Amino acid sequence: MTSSPLRFQTGGHINRDKPIEFEFNGKIYTGFDGDTLASALLANGIFLTARSFKYHRPRGVMGAGVEEPSCLVELLGVHAAGNHAATKVELRTGLRAKSVNCWPSPNFDLLSINQFFSRLLPAGFYYKTFMWPNWHLFETSIRRAAGLAAAPDERIPDHRYETRWWYGDVIVVGAGPCGLLAAMMASRSGARVMIVDDHREAGGHLRASRMIINGNPALDWVAAIVEELDANPEVTRLQDAIAWGYRESNQLMITERNPLEDHVFQRGWKARANRVILATGAIERNLIFANNDRPGVMLASAVQRYANEYAVMPGRRAVIFTNNSSAYELAHDLRSLGIDVAGIVDSRPSSAIGVEQQGLDMPLFAEHQVMTAHGGKKVQAVTIRDKNGVTTRLNCDLLALSGGWNPAVHLFSQSRGTLAYDADLASFVPDKPSQQVICVGAAAGQMNLAFAIVETAALTSSCLQNQGFTVAAVATPELSTITDYNIHPLWKVDGLRPGDKAFIDIQNDVTLDDIGLAMREGFDTVEHVKRYTTAGMGIDQGKIGNVNVIGNMAEASNKTPGEIGTTTFRSPFTPVDFGSIAGQRSGEVVLPFRHTPITKWNKAQGAVMYEAGARWQRPGYFPVAGETMQNAINREAEAVRYGVGVYDGSPLGKFDISGRDAAAFIDLLYTNDFSDLEIGMGRYGIMLSEDGMILDDGVTFKLAENHYFMSTSTGYADLVFRHMEYILQVERPSWQVWITPITSQWCNATICGPKARDVLVALGTSVDISAEAFPFMALREGIVADMPARICRVSFTGEVSFEINVWPRHAEAMWHRIMEAGAPLGILPIGSETSHVLRVEKGFLSLGHEVDGTVDPFDLGMGWIMSRTKMHAIGRRSVDIRRESGKPRRELIGLLPDSNGELIPEGAPITPNGDRVASEGFVSACVWSVVKQRVIALGLLLNGRARIGQTVFIRDREKTIKAIVTKPCFHDPQGHRLRG
Amino acid sequence: MGYQISTERQALQATFDIKGVKAAVARKLSPLGLALPSDRNTTSRSNDITLCWIGKSHWLLVAPAEMETQLKASLVPDDTTHDCRVVLVSDVFTFFSITGPQANDIMAIASPLDTRPKKFPENGSTFSELFGIRGLILRQPNGFTIAIEQSYADMVAAYFRKI
């Protein structure tokens, strides 16, 4: 041994020339390049590494890979992250980690007191106990005590995650012997191949074994294939990468933990191939006996991997407990390494134990079972029992378990392939595929490697030939001794007593008693047992425990495990960083955003920017130094009411609509008539969906015969486009109508206010802008400020408005010219908050406020927009049918709240007498009115128009506010100003 | 940027959206000496003009900005009387070029489009997802040209800075 007490002086696949210091629970240790955190901790003699989820029992490392159920750690520092299995954390310089679920340390954990009350904490305890008076009273404390690692407190640095797509002919998952063989054959056939493996180096089980292939160490054979694959540019080989999700159309979700490129921290792959070959191997399961969770109780395959791959022996005197032949490989390895083995405890009868025992000069206890493990923070001995009940105590500090092997069918199941129970394997194997996928090797249930290789070659050859590739024969490698797999299922040991802590799901602290309790209480299907007990949930997903749950349920109910069935295998197969899913979508681009050519100017003016529909970043308001938001809005609103303002209306949706049937199409879309519209004029319209509810509103201008310019609301532009395309493609396919979205072809600076015309005059224009020549709702094309422009007289503010539409290439110049020309008139830029105030004063509707998917034009007092001659307009029939019922409706009203100047939150309910009862309406918008110099609001109220003048009551959390119902217009109800 | 690529926001391009009956579109474009692409999601070229077939009855014509006036006159975008419709959309799109030995890597990050040559040929052109939004993808020597709605141009530029 070296200075690390449990490290062999030679052997393993670690780089002893590169020692690495790391921190665990505040102490500094040393490992080697090639170690995992788990192997390095074991090498340093650290066995107590965590506390359990519920009872806070001492726990240590149990596995060596993705199956690890108990040794989860929280990573600290720049790589801060929670709940990483120590077996999958690569040792690197600067690594800092700590145990989860314990305080102050795993050695002394205050909540370990839970162990003494464990009889009072069975499955379902929380559901039954904390019901009165209210679960939420206890929730915070319970959640604090439960759970695993916390999310990092501080924002971790931008690690440059990346996601990318990949397409090819074949994806092989798993770089064990079968996966490598499949990938090599695919590569030689000329296919584009990806091979994905979750270990740092290829080889799979071969890296943990001492197998000889073709007369040489197995890893020589592995290295030759890897070299061949790496030489082929059509092969993408990902190591330390986990395929964690199987989606439709053969798409695999993969996280590559350590990409070659320094500038990428982790990479998520969305890889899709014509065929997927799953060579995912098998996962060893544990055995169920008392105290089977003590530190020092490990899976036999894990002990073998630590010994052979990392040169670590996690104990000095071992006992092997098995129900199958595979664990004997470990016994042979330990014998070769000179490790003291106190005995092999095999639950099978002597007659079932075959050649696997040959050459072992160690005690073999056939037809014996381990009853219990002794020791608190580390196993010290085990008590075994023969079939007659005679017990023997064996001293040991390591207990290696093998309860059989479960083919890793998770990805196959996620692909919607079905599973079948194989009684010979005592586990579930892939049955009928649902996608173009095959399973090979142990993943297919073939536990004999020699047979697995032959079968893999045949299946891969067939898979490639079906795709049209020519496959050359491959030489089957010659393997050293292989033992046939033989298992006698042992779902639990005999003689367990109630109260024995025999864990069936180590990670979730679920005992065999919990399963029994669940079934006695009527939860007799595997999905119900899962939910009641939490067995198989969480990040573990039952990798080593689920089949034991199923086996025990089968025994208890006199069914076969196949009749019990499995639970749903969910992605991710193992925990992955959210960052590797999100990829580059973080920080500035975490959400899509859109700018107008004026955005830069807006920001330079100090505008408060935020999204205002359809991902457009718009200025909310333009505060000057020391000014509050409300004061800024008031100042901007007063400029429009009494002077002039300008806003960037570019985000409004815009469509060019033309074609032989364009006029008929517009008439079909809108509830009012457009067919009599004159060229150069526009009309406000409301568009309904099929259910007769308002979909959108906007103004459409007639540019020429069968040629229209439609504007829509910003946020609904895409929805309207889809609606129109649906009508044309599905309902009116014979109509000739061409729709071209031109939202970004036209930018729009809207000059509004009593002095708007003066600004336009100052700009200089070729258009006669007098009210007579250019009336409200007209459109003119001409020159403005020496630039070609399309001017529309539309108003969303209630004041005279000119929408100056120019191509974006001119937008910035036009904006500057407007600000210069308007400066002597006191022009101000206004934001969307101010526009909101102005439209509320005017009572103009807004989608998302008054229009919430439940209203029709009559509800808003706009029955006038429902043409009496055009009954075929979309949604019209639905409106009529609904209104024929005569049921009362919520109607748009104005409100004058008695709120002492405070604004009322949008959505605040209006209830009878302000009682805490069902609402009769709600506040849709509430602002400080610069024309009324008070708070005003709009709302929807049951039979609202008949209640004008009445007092209603608005609930604002615990307050009740009186309000007088008014007409929904507070400014210039006749519209003289906007037509001026 | 960690990849060996060069990205460049290109100057305005003369761009026309063309929808209509195939024969009518062919007639409309024939004065330009421009044949319709033979396969969907491919391009045809004549001089500096590129015509992309991007939908069942949908094409996009792209040319240098200095040709805009001439093309506008030729294509009569305000004429709605034919069985096809041409709309000037030069300002709708912002074009970026992505060139360099790792241009394919950038496309694999930006778009789910399968850009293998047998799936997306030398004259390939198609709308697909680009950084989560819709965009046009064209091959060019040593890389790709992409076009996205100009309102998203700053966002795409931000993506390029990140990768």
Oligomer: heterodimer
Largest interface summary: A-B, 47 and 40 residues
Return the domain count of chain B: 2
Query: What gap, in angstroms, lies between the N and C termini of chain B?
Result: 5 Å
- CATH level-two architecture of the largest domain in chain A: 3-Layer(bba) Sandwich
> How many domains comprise the coordinates of chain A?
6
Major β-sheet profile of chain B: 5 strands, antiparallel
Q: What is the averaged pLDDT score of chain A?
A: 94
Structural summary, described in words:
The complex is a heterodimer of chains A (980) and B (163). Chain A is an alpha+beta fold and 980 residues long. Chain A has six domains: 1-157, Ubiquitin-like (UB roll), CATH 3.10.20; 162-283 and 407-466, FAD/NAD(P)-binding domain (3-Layer(bba) Sandwich), CATH 3.50.50.60; 286-403 and 484-490, FAD/NAD(P)-binding domain, CATH 3.50.50.60; 502-568, Arc Repressor Mutant, subunit A (Orthogonal Bundle); 599-650 and 745-837, Gyrase A, domain 2 (2-Layer Sandwich), CATH 3.30.1360; 653-741, Alpha-Beta Plaits (2-Layer Sandwich), CATH 3.30.70.1400. Chain A contains 23 helices and 49 strands. In chain A, the strands form 13 sheets. In chain A, strands 8, 9, 12, 13, 14, 15 and 28 form a seven-stranded mixed β-sheet that branches. Chain A has a six-stranded mixed β-sheet with strand order 40-41-42-39-33-43. In chain A, helix 4 packs parallel to helix 9. Chain A is elongated, with a radius of gyration of 37 Å. Chain B is α+β, with helices and mostly antiparallel strands. Chain B folds into two domains: 6-10 and 92-162, Probable tRNA modification gtpase trme, domain 1 (Gyrase A, domain 2), CATH 3.30.1360; 13-88, Aminomethyltransferase beta-barrel domains (Alpha-Beta Plaits). In chain B, 21% of the residues lie in helices and 39% in strands. Chain B is built from four helices and ten strands. Chain B has a five-stranded antiparallel β-sheet, with helices on one face. Chain B has a five-stranded antiparallel β-sheet with strand order 3-4-5-2-6. In chain B, a hairpin with a 2-residue loop joins strand 8 (125-130) and strand 9 (133-140). The radius of gyration of chain B is 16 Å and the shape is globular. The mean pLDDT of chain B is 94. Chain A binds chain B through residues 160, 162-167, 192, 261-264, 270, 583-585, 587-589, 592-596, 599, 616, 651, 656, 658-659, 662, 704-707, 736, 738, 740-746, 807-809, and chain B through 2, 12, 17, 19-20, 78, 80, 83-85, 87-93, 105, 108-109, 111-114, 116, 119, 131-133, 149-155, 158-159, 162-163.
